[in-house]
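Any chance you could type out a protein's amino acid sequence plus the matching backbone structure tokens because I've never seen that pairing?

——
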Amino acid sequence: MAAAGERITFATVARAAQVSTWLVYAEGVREHVQAAIDQQSHEPAKARSQGRQTSPASLTTDLALAREEISSLRDERDRLREAVRQQLGQQLDQVSNRQLTDRVSELTEQVRQLERSEAQARTEAEQLGSRVAELQADLAAARTSLRKMIRQQAGPPDGQ
């Protein structure tokens, strides 16, 4: 396994040997497997040259790319949030506009009703004013007639 470049663990040794894992942990075998694991962990340069392990420069590049992608995703998230906020604002404005339009229609109808009522009241006031003028004229005529009747009834003064 070490010569083939396979990763050595207790489980992979047990599978390769087609034995149970407790056997590879048994005394006498365990030391050999552990030694192979330790030897393999001291070969990072060889593994790197074969492309099995990443170099620090590669990790740095991967980290930079990941940070750039994170930044891009954050920007996209912010743009989407703003778009949703604007959409919600427009929906709220439309609801408010509908309510305002309904309220304006309602108030306009009330104004029309009040104008009709005012016109009726003015007409009634004019009619009543005419009736008052007639009654005052009748009253004045009645007073004048009454004075004439009183003078006629009283007769000429005694000394004449």
